[in-house]
Every structure is written in C-alpha cells, then in structure tokens.
Design goal:
The chain is α/β, with parallel strands linked by helices and 383 residues long. It has 18 helices and nine strands. The chain binds S-adenosylmethionine.
Amino acid sequence: MNEVVRSAFSLGELFDTVDWICERRDARYLSILRSKKTKSTMPKKASKKKQVTPERLMQFGFAYAPPLIIGAAVSNKVFDTLETGGKTVEQVSKTTGASQRGLRAIMNALVGLELLKKDRHEKYSLVPESEAFLVSNKPGTLSGFFAMACTHLVPDWLHLTDAVKTGIPPVAVNREATGPEFFSVLVENIIPMSYPAAMALGQSLGLAKTRKPVRVLDVAAGSGIWGITLAQQSPLVRVTAQDWPAMIPTTKRITQKFGVADRFSYVGGDVLEADFGSDYDVVILGHILHTEGEDRSRKLLKKVFAALKPGGTIAIGEWLVNDARTEPLPSLIFAVNMLVHSERGDAFSFNEIKSWLEEAGFKKARKLQAPGPSPLVLATKPG
Ligand SMILES: C[S@@+](CC[C@H](N)C(=O)[O-])C[C@H]1O[C@@H](n2cnc3c(N)ncnc32)[C@H](O)[C@@H]1O
C-alpha cells in the first residue's frame, strides 16, 4: 500500500495533473464563478450603453449543482464503476443498483461538466481528470471530499442566512467539543489540496540534499500531510505533529499508511495551550489561521516564533485574499465558508499575515509559489 501511495503521489504525476487542470480551468463550467463578467452577446451599439443581462445570475442560480452532482455520482459509485471501461446507463445501473432515470440525469450532466464523455453508442467513460481524482481507490482522490460536500458542507451552508443575521455559525468547528468530529472526516479528504504545496515547500527548503537532521513541527497537523511529505523527501526529517487529542489517532493512522510513522511524535492539545517544544528548523501552519481568526492567529505566530531555532522557517498554507478583499473569488467564497463553520474565522491577505509575522519578530516574509489555493507564506526567525 505504501508503495502505491508513494508512487501515485510522485511529484511529476501530481504536478502534471494540477497543471492540466489549471490550463483547462477557464474552459470549464465553473468559469462562471470568475469575478470578471462574461462577454456580452449584445450587438456593439447596445453593449456601449452597458445594458445588463440576467445571463450570469441565471447561471449562478444553479451553481450549487456541480458539487452535489459529483457527490451523488461518487456515492452511487459511478466513477468507480467506469474505472474498468466505458458503460451504458443500463450497465452502470446493473452494477450499482442505482435507478436508470437518476443515473441518466447525473451522467449527462457530468458529460456537460467534462467529467465524463459519451460515445455514439451511449457508452460513458472517464476523462483524465475524473480518472485521477474521482475514483475512490486512487491515492489522490477527491471522492471523499465531494461525498462530504453532500453530507456536511452543503447542509451547513444552508444556514448561511441565519449566520449572516447573527454572525454565529451553525457548526463551530474551531471548538474542541465539535471540531474533531468534522475534521476527522475532512482532513484525509483534503490531502490532495496540500500535498503538491508541501512538495514545493520541501524543494524550496532543499530537504532532498540535506545532510543535517531537520526538526519539523506540524501545527494543527490533521492528516499530517505537510510533515509526511517533508519526511518523504529526506530520512533526516523528524516531525512533531500537534492537534487536538481526539485527532491524534487519525494523524497516527495516516502517518502509518504513508510509512513514515517511525519518524513522527505527537502532541495533543489546543494550538495555544499545547507544549510545542523548541529548536525546530521548520514550523508549518497548514490551513489553521483561517479557523483561528486574527487575535488567536497573532498569538499563535508568537508561540511559533519561540519554538523555532534562530534561522528557522515558518511556512503557512492559506486561502489568501488581496488587500482590498475583492479577489480572488475562491478565497472570498472560502471566507464565507469560515463564517458558516467558525466563530472568528476569515480569509486573510498576505500583507495582514506579514504584519502579524513582523509583530512576532519574523523577518523576510515572502510568498512561495506553490500549487493549491494560494501561494505559501514563508518567513524567517532572525539568526
Ligand atoms: C483544515 S484542517 C488542516 C489540517 C492540515 N494542517 C492540512 O493542511 O491538511 C485544520 C486542523 O486544525 C485542527 N484544529 C483546529 N482548531 C484547533 C485548535 N484550536 N487546536 C488544535 N487543533 C486545531 C483540526 O483538528 C484540523 O486537524
């Protein structure tokens, strides 16, 4: 299993697929979520008068559908069934037990979403993107994420109107009492989001060539994927993974699955209360600041500063917004996700995080371009 996991997560393969998706992003249905308005089909004279059309809003009206359709296809084993080759609706129905009527509707929509293709004989088959990321036994699969969209994320988002009115989330996953139940499902499903970024971080740190031991602290480690990826790059890497005590069994299980558990130790506790230890070369904050909100994030950065060696590096994975909070759209939507799921969470800008890093004593705050929602934010503890 470990060999399978490692080989399927080989740098080349994953980056190739990520590039392929990025190149094609503009051609896809979700391009309606870009902030720029689509070209008007109005004649030139009329468009000069800036006549608006309801076209974009009408598209938004069903923009909730793609994740639900993908989730329904995952849960009814559509992608898994097509892994062995193209099949008709009748054949998929026979294998899965799902209704022909239901399958026909979602499989045609998946053709429209360019996640399936259909031939002249009404046989549906996978495309490279669905084959790589929606078949459930593939190591980088997002199938669990879309299943979770149906069972957890969308049901929570249905309370958005109340959350806006009160400022209180329907589910506060930043709390130890409720968080682990949510995160123990989420963290494994978001491994494909952070794995390529963690690879890029390890490369920028030159881990493959290191001759000295490298001590890494993975704060709010979840699956442990940031530490796991760095540990894969050098046998000299040792990782301390910190998370709530109820999450540590999940972290342990996944580090074992990746075959690096012998170089991991675990610290259970709240990020602001746990004993991090000291003298780390690298500390990673992977997707935790947005749940913590500003005040706790600023405290956490000070605590991380104290845990690093002089010359050590902090690396932060986030969904960054611009200073004016007008783009990029995925990060602005993610900020709403934080309204729905946390009491103080938000999406922050590079300059906000930079100012908190400098307040904590860090220097050289910088961006590292990496696959994922945003560049990583790096900074150095002065030597
Ligand atoms: C979005 S997940 C990110 C996991 C991992 N770092 C990654 O990037 O894939 C957030 C993680 O932070 C942990 N977490 C959230 N709030 C915490 C807190 N106050 N103290 C300790 N852990 C916390 C959750 O249990 C979860 O594992």
